[in-house]
């Protein structure tokens, strides 16, 4: 009978240890999920910020002699483009990363620079819409049409 008590006590000890380990695993999973949500939130906020920076950049004098405002605008669009793919807004607005990348590439093309500058007000209005709602597929479609016309 003594052996069965030891066996039962050992079994209970093993069950308690397994329950403690399970608790740690569950806590770790919850903590990991919270970290992932926090990272995604930061990415989304960075994306929205970069859209705002691009909108602001398109409001400047892009045709000035030293070219610095145009280069800053290109950098803002590049930053927004680089974060778009990682943002959760990409789930609802699937083409936003492609549109931003296309605009960035068009802005780098010296043959299209004057057309970009000429359309800066329109592009700025679209970026303002996207800054308010990055999931706006209509605004992304408008941006794609402007890019196609450059």
Strand composition percent:
under 5%
In this structure, how is the largest beta sheet organized? none
Mean pLDDT across all amino acids: 87
Q: Helical stretch count?
A: 7
Gross geometry: rod-shaped
Classification by helices and strands:
mainly alpha
As a percent range, the share of helical residues equals: over 70%
Q: End-to-end distance, in Å?
A: 90 Å
Low-confidence stretches: none
SSE ordering: HHHHHHH
Rg computed from alpha carbons, rounded to a whole number of angstroms: 26 Å
The total strand number stands at 0
Q: Give the tally of structural domains.
A: 1
Transmembrane segments: 6-26
Keywords: Membrane, Transmembrane, Transmembrane helix
């Amino acid at each position: 009978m003594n052996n069965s008590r030891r066996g039962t006590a050992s079994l209970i000890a093993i069950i308690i240890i397994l329950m403690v380990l399970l608790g740690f695993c569950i806590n770790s999973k919850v903590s990991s999920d919270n970290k992932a949500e926090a990272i995604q939130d930061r990415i989304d906020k960075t994306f929205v910020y970069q859209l705002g920076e691009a909108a602001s950049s398109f409001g400047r004098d892009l045709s000035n002699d030293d070219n610095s405002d145009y280069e800053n605008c290109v950098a803002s669009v590049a930053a927004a483009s680089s974060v778009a793919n990682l943002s959760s807004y990409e789930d609802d607005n699937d083409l936003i990363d492609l549109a931003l990348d296309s605009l960035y590439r068009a802005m780098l093309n010296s043959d299209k620079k004057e057309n970009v500058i000429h359309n800066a007000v329109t592009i700025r209005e679209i970026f303002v819409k996207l800054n308010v709602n990055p999931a706006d597929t209509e605004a992304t479609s408008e941006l794609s049409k402007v890019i196609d016309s450059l």
